[in-house]
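quick one
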Amino acid sequence: MCEFCVQHGEGKKWYLTMENYSKDLLDQKNRRKYSAEFLNEFHVRTPKSMGQLEQIRRTPLMKLAKPILTHNQKENHYGQVVPMEDVEKIFELVEGAVRLPCVCRRVTTGNMNARYCYGLTMDRQLMDSLDDSFSLEILSKEEALDSIRKLDKEGLVHSVWTFKTPFIGGLCNCDQDCLAYRITHARKDYPVMFRAEWAAAVSRDACNGCRLCMRQCQYGAIRYSSNDKKVVVDPAACYGCGVCRAVCSRDAITLYPRETVKEAAGIW
Ligand code: SF4
Ligand code: SF4
Ligand code: SF4
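structure w/ iron/sulfur cluster:
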């Protein structure tokens, strides 16, 4: 289990702990104000902070800044990848969802209305503090789950996000336009998002070598062997998102608990 499960999971996965979605937590630590400012100002504030990061990331200062940035991220707004089966379990803990435009894509693509984010714990007060550009959509559990299942088939990686840890504010559906993907994985600046509690493996007997799963994997964790014409997952590279399974007609890919996969255990 990751450090968040140890600290905030009451012996379970931290994002399957009811307390972390509670109104009591939303009422504490000025979380409504923090969340509203985070969302309303993201597309204005983030280009400036990305510019500052760009200036220091190739200098010796980055070594000093990395633990501070990581600490702040974990305290305030941290994510973890979750596969679809855990998304289904998360929706047993919440009443529905509020769909809103993705704030990362506002910055990385300029699209102000790419609707990939699902608020899980917004109350009326918080919704009223968001600016009109969010044009919130209130969805039932089933509506939200149906739309997220479609995104899973398209290969979008699901993740849960804290708004002042451990309170979980939202569930995201990301591709390589995600700033967390870029900072954590593509550029390896500092960790903004944990890997899932899972890691994938391919059954060599079932795999027919079609390679569709390789295109679905955003982390380059699946390799093709031209010797035996099958694929294999590199456990050390796998984020455990599980979206590769959606395109496998042979059901050849399975997720295993990360701690049981020797080469993936302890890699977050
Ligand atoms: S984490 Fe993903 S869905 Fe959430 S704001 Fe960033 S790209 Fe959008
Ligand atoms: S999609 Fe399935 S059958 Fe095709 S290469 Fe991947 S694991 Fe093998
Ligand atoms: S191999 Fe791992 S990281 Fe890649 S899509 Fe499958 S579960 Fe996700």
